[in-house]
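> run fold Actin-related protein 3
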Amino acid sequence: MCQNIVLSGGSTMFRDFGRRVQRDLKRVVDARLKFSEELSGGRLKPKPMEVQVVTHHMQRYAVWFGGSMLASTPEFSQVCHSKKDYDEIGPSICRHNPVFGIMS
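> ok
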């Protein structure tokens, strides 16, 4: 999972953001691997895990682009909350995100 982190959205455009995320995440991953080895008493030697953070020239617009791709799928209407549902259930309907249950 850490080998293909793709940055998206305007807040990822800060200078050196990708480099800092990669560096900090690598430190966390390495510390956890070392801790796992210590817990095993040295019997288990985890393989080093690569951390790769990808920046790209369209990352500022990637969130919008992904949303537009989702909206163009046939399943999109199934993952939307209707006004009727909102009026019946109220704001708590927003706590459930059906996207993760239907889209594959």
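The longest strand covers residues 5-6.
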